[in-house]
Amino acid sequence: MSVITVYYLFCRITNALDLKEHLQKTVKKLPAGIKRKLCFALSMLGNPQITLLDEPSTGMDPKAKQHMWRAIRTAFKNKKRAAILTTHYMEEAEAVCDRVAIMISGQLRCIGTVQHLKSKFGKGYYLEIKLKDWIENLEIDRLQREIQYIFPNASRQERITNY
């Protein structure tokens, strides 16, 4: 890979990740999210066949996470290279990965597409609502009916009131 190619690639990556304004700063002065973006940018420079990514969007705000995930997808889409990503967040895995493997205590427990794993192991969603003390029971009942209308299979697990 020539120096010009590396420079061109670095410019494209820094533009995609909004790193331009941070290039003149020392690494010690960069926020954690920007450091992660920079690490990803540097890891792409050598055009590696396999890249290991450890929670690449940790410490980023939601907009920055979306940028990072888009950059990761673009870097590996339709190319003869791959990435192995470790994360605790299913949202990140779903945004970036074609296949997901779940490991428990160092043992591979299952592997498949995100949708396959959700349908096989998912148990639904939990909705927790915290209300101000002054909201009347009539309003709470109306909220319960609205939730039931939107999610017909929803059931209230518990209701805790603070007095």
Automatic annotation (TrEMBL):
Transmembrane segments: none annotated. Residues 33-88 form the ATPase AAA-type core domain. Pfam families: AAA_21. GO terms for molecular function: ABC-type transporter activity; ATP binding; ATP hydrolysis activity; lipid transporter activity. InterPro entries: ABCA (IPR026082), ATPase_AAA_core (IPR003959), P-loop_NTPase (IPR027417). GO terms for cellular component: late endosome; membrane. SUPFAM superfamilies: P-loop containing nucleoside triphosphate hydrolases. This is ATP binding cassette subfamily A member 5.
